[in-house]
Specification:
Elements lengths: L5 E6 L3 H10 L5 E4 L6 H7 L5 E5 L9 H8 L6 E5 L4 H10 L3 E4 L4 H12 L4 E2 L3 H7 L9 H16 L6 H16 L8 H8 L10 H4 L7 H7 L2 H9 L6 H9 L20 H15 L11 H10 L7 H11 L17
Parallel strand pairs: 1-2, 1-3, 3-4, 4-5, 5-6
Helix pairs in contact: 1-5, 4-7, 7-9, 8-9, 8-14, 8-16, 9-13, 12-13, 13-14, 14-15, 15-16
Length: 345
């Protein structure tokens, strides 16, 4: 992504907005298109070639969110960044329901704006105030507006505001887990919007964990580890009143269970662990081990998959571990020497 020319579409902005975005991205190659025709058909034709759709709204407009509803209708909301007034709570609320990938204030600093654009282009989620205030301050109805996915992305974004070391983790691990689910086709974990929401929300309970623990650059003490290990139960409590399907609470509560019963919070064994949680646990450890963390360097993707195979039958469902090897690696996997860090597994 760093070497790629960013291709952006700007909707609702004027020449000053175009210049501001150009200056924000001055250090990298970018192309900004301002289409004359912003109809669904016109945007749909160029959608596959665009990295980010930037929509600039104004609360003085009769319907400032009309472009966002059109974008959702053609499936580009996950590549859309909204720029709006800092006090425009109505637009922030509807943008969250629609499920846009990013939301920043019109007055955001140049560097902040550049970061948000690049983050969305990489498939991440970036919510600035007032969207973050909406996430923290209201109950989200997943059955209204943008459905389960809008609510899931809003809550996942709220977590990323706290946990600075796992930026983009929810989206990355969801993509891995969905890929495994599409091949496994297990009852109770069939690919669906609900399953995707479950994967996105797996760590939502960390919203209730102190930032001093989440962002600690060194290893945790036993007491801190016990606090952190409460996040599956906290997460289940957070989503309970929101009306999500059962598979969401299953993943949120049980994604740290282990095949041999040594996991938490309920020490479930084997197929007592819900299928969606068994699938997710494999994707979760792969992404954790291949991502930068404050206490260790990332390993290669192949090494992470090998660790899954090594702990097949103890930490992970043996059949799913074998399937992960088949899906993610093209060659037989030898056993590694030495255990992985318990922070990741």
């Amino acid at each position: 992504m760093d070497d790629k020319t960013l291709r952006l579409v700007l909707i609702g902005g004027d020449s000053a907005a175009w210049l501001e975005i150009s200056e924000a991205l001055a250090d990298r190659s970018s192309q900004i298109f301002v289409p004359r025709d912003v109809s669904p058909s016109a945007l749909g034709e160029i959608g596959s070639e665009i990295d980010v759709v930037i929509v600039i709204t104004s609360p003085s407009e009769p319907d400032p969110c009309s472009p966002l509803r059109m974008i959702r209708a053609i499936g580009l909301q996950r590549r859309t960044l909204v720029i709006a007034d800092a006090d425009d709570q109505r637009t922030a609320a509807e943008a969250l329901d629609i499920g846009v990938a990013g939301y920043v204030r019109r007055s955001a600093a140049t560097e902040h704006l550049a970061t948000s654009i690049v983050h969305v282009a990489r498939g991440g989620v970036f919510y600035d105030a007032p969207a973050a205030a909406v996430v923290h301050g209201r109950s989200i109805d997943p059955l209204a507006g943008g459905g389960h996915m809008g609510a899931a992305r809003a809550l996942a974004a709220a977590l990323e505001l706290k946990d600075t070391y796992t930026g983009g983790h929810a989206e990355r691990v969801t993509a891995l887990a969905i890929k495994l689910a599409r091949v496994a086709l297990l009852p109770g974990a069939l690919p669906s919007e609900s399953l995707e929401a479950a994967f996105l929300l797996h760590d939502v309970g960390k919203i209730g964990i102190p930032e001093s623990i989440l962002n600690k650059p060194a290893g945790l003490t036993d007491t801190e580890r016990r606090v952190l290990n409460t996040h599956p139960i906290l997460g289940e409590r957070i989503i309970a009143p929101l009306g999500f399907p059962d598979v969401v609470s299953q993943v949120v509560r049980h994604h740290h269970e282990r095949w041999d019963g040594s996991g938490y919070p309920d020490a479930l064994t084997g197929t007592e662990i819900p299928a969606a949680a068994r699938i997710f646990s494999i994707a979760d450890v792969i992404d954790a081990m291949t991502s930068i963390r404050p206490y260790r360097r990332p390993v290669s993707f192949e090494t992470a998959v090998r660790e899954v195979i090594r702990y097949s039958g103890s930490h992970f469902d043996p059949q799913l571990a074998a399937l992960a090897q088949e899906i993610f690696l093209d060659t037989p996997v030898p056993v590694l020497e030495g255990p992985p860090r318990t922070d990741d597994l």
